[in-house]
Amino acid sequence: xxxxxxxxxxxxxxxxxxxxxxxxxxxxxxxxxxxxxxxxxxxxxxxxxxxxxxxxxxxxxxxxxxxxxxxxxxxxxxxxxxxxxxxxxxxxxxxxxxxxxxxxxxxxxxxxxxxxxxxxxxxxxxxxxxxxxxxxxxxxxxxxxxxxxxxxxxxxxxxxxxxxxxxxxxxxxxxxxxxxxxxxxxxxxxxxxxxxxxxxxxxxxxxxxxxxxxxxxxxxxxxxxxxxxxxxxxxxxxxxxxxxxxxxxxxxxxxxxxxxxxxxxxxxxxxxxxxxxxxxxxxxxxxxxxxxxxxxxxxxxxxxxxxxxxxxxxxxxxxxxxxxxxxxxxxxxxxxxxxxxxxxxxxxxxxxxxxxxxxxxxxxxxxxxxxxxxxxxxxxxxxxxxxxxxxxxxxxxxxxxxxxxxxxxxxxxxxxxxxxxxxxxxxxxxxxxxxxxxxxxxxxxxxxxxxxxxxxxxxxxxxxxxxxxxxxxxxxxxxxxxxxxxxxxxxxxxxxxxxxxxxxxxxxxxxxxxxxxxxxxxxxxxxxxxxxxxxxxxxxxxxxxxxxxxxxxxxxxxxxxxxxxxxxxxxxxxxxxxxxxxxxxxxxxxxxxxxxxxxxxxxxxxxxxxxxxxxxx
Length: 617
Fold this sequence. Notes:
Blueprint lengths: L7 E4 L1 H12 L25 E4 L3 H5 L12 H6 L13 H14 L3 H14 L1 H10 L1 H8 L3 H7 L1 H4 L6 E4 L6 H6 L9 E5 L15 H13 L8 E7 L5 H4 L14 H18 L4 E4 L4 H11 L5 E3 H21 L8 E4 L3 H16 L5 H5 L2 E5 L2 E2 L31 H8 L3 E4 L9 H8 L6 E4 L11 H7 L5 E4 L5 E2 L2 E2 L1 E2 L6 H11 L6 H13 L18 H18 L23 H11 L7 E7 L1
Parallel strand pairs: 1-17, 2-17, 3-5, 4-5, 4-6, 6-7, 8-9, 8-11, 11-12, 12-13, 13-16
Antiparallel strand pairs: 9-10, 14-15
C-alpha cells in the first residue's frame, strides 16, 4: 500500500473477537477502546507499524494517542477528513520536536515549562515523549524533581483537566467502576498509586498526589519503555492534614482530615483486590505514602502480588548501587564498611533495609552482621537502646545499637556520633538543609581517606550539603552523589542518585516476565547491574552513576537481570502465554545477551505509525 493509495480495512465482529483473543495472549499488547480508536494490532510494546482507528477530523486531532498534528501526511489528511484543520505544510517528527523545544526554551520559569510539557502530553503523546527523550538530561528537573514538587504543591490552582484515576475514600463502592474506565483485563501493565501523604520534601499534598503518579509514569515510558496507553495513575483521596490545603477554596480533594485506621486499611485493600481482579497482570507501584502506611502496605502485599514501593525499595536500591561503585574506588569490601544514615523516615530506613538485603543476598552476611554495620539517626538522635520505645518505630527498631559506646556523647549531635562510629559512608535523607557541616566532614575525614558522602534530600534547597563545599572541605577526596542534579562542580561531574536509574528497569522486567512477585533477589540483581555500569569502574575520577543520556540502555540492562532472576526463581509466568503471531508459547531467552535483545525489542518508542481507517462490515 503506497502513500497515494490509503487503505481502509473492513473489520467484522468475528475478526474483532479473533484479534481480542490473540492480543490477550501477549504480555504487552492492548485491546482497549477499539471503537474509540486505540490500536489493537500491537504485538509488543512498540514495534507494530500500523494503527487502526475509526476516528476522523477533530476527534482524531483531540486523541493524544493518535494525533500527529502537522505530521499527518496528505493521504492521511484526505482519508481522515483533516484537510482544512491543519496548516498546509507536513512536518517530520524531528521538525516538530525542534519547534516544540524552541517554544519550551522561551518560557521564563521552570513551573511554566512544566505546564507546557503537561499540555503537550495531553495533545500529542508521541511528540511529548520524543521531546523529553531527546532532551532528557536537561528536562528531567522540569518533568520530575524538583519542579514537579512545585507543580504538586499548586495542583489545585493549576488544575486544567483530570489526568488520572481519582478514588474517594468516602465512596469505596466506586473503586471497581473507576478502574473500569481504563480498559479490559489485558490492557494495563503498570499502575502507580499514591495517597499523597508523604510527597518527598513537601509532605502531605492530598489529592495533588496524582501529579507524582503521572510524573513517575512519564519516566516509566521515557526511561523504561512501558507503553503510555497501558498505565494508570491513581490517587487515593483519603483527605489531608495539610491545613493550608483544607483552607484553600480551590482545593480539589476531600475537605477533611486524613482517614486512618481500619477504614483506611479496608480502602487500600479494596483497591488492591479490585486491581487484581480487573487487571490481573498489572504491577502496582506504591508511591509517596506516609512512612507508617508505606511499610505496612508493602509488607502486607509484597509476597502476594507483583508490587514495589519506590521510596522504600527504589531509593535504597540506587543508593546501594552508588555505594558499591564508590567502594570500588576505595577498594573496600561492602562487608567491612560502616554506614551512618542521617534521617530515618521511609526513605532512610528503606535505604538501610536495601543495604541489609544486599549484604545478605550478595555478600552472604548474616542479618545480624549486616545490621551491625549500619547506624541510623533521626530527630531524636542515634537509634540506640537508650531511646525510649515510643521514640523508635517498628521499622527502625531492628537497627537499634547498644548504647554503651555512646554513653559519653550527645547522640543528637552528628559530629559527636561521627567521631564514635567513624563511618566510611554518610548518607543524608533528613531534609535538614546544611546538616553536613564542615565540622562534621572534617571529623569524618580524620578516619577515612576518601569519605563517601551522599546528601540525598530533595528538593535541592533541602540538601544536607552542597557538593562544591564537600569537595573543598576534603581537598577533592570526597566521593559524592546527590539527590538532585548539580552538573559539573570544580571540574567534576556530580552523579545524581536518582531513583529513575532503577525503578523503570525493575518495573519493565516485572512486566515483561509477568513475575508473580518482585523479590529481594530480583532487586539485588538490579543493584548489581546498575553498579556494574558505573563510570568509576573505568576511571576513578568519573561520576559514581552513569549519565541520564544512557537511561534507556541502563533500564534495559536492569530489566534483563530482573527477567532472568524471575525466571530462575520460577516466578515468571509469561511463558504460560501463547504469542500473538502463533500458538507457540513465549520463551524467555536463557542467555543474557539474547534476553537483553528481547527486552529492547519490547520497549515502546515515540514514533509515529501509519494510520489505517477501520470500518465495521
